[in-house]
Amino acid sequence: MEGKQVKVIENSEGARTTPSVVAYLDGSELLVGASAKRQSVANPKNTLFAVKRLIGRRFEEKRCQ
What we know:
Keywords: ATP-binding, Nucleotide-binding. InterPro entries: ATPase_NBD, Hsp_70_fam. Belongs to the heat shock protein 70 family. This is Molecular chaperone DnaK. By secondary structure, this protein is mainly beta. The chain is 8% helix and 15% strand. The protein is built from 1 helix and 3 strands; from the N terminus they run E-E-H-E. It has a 3-stranded antiparallel sheet. The termini are far apart.
């Protein structure tokens, strides 16, 4: 907050929101947010998204499989 005003902090790319996406690249490189989302078409097997929908569920549940 700045005084009595709420301030949204921008991420490193200047955006006010960050996509919930994580991507693993060759080696040990890890991408998060917009950069991970941009490469998701080229690297779908190593890109995670929509994981927040699984929080609180059991692994055995049909939705998790």
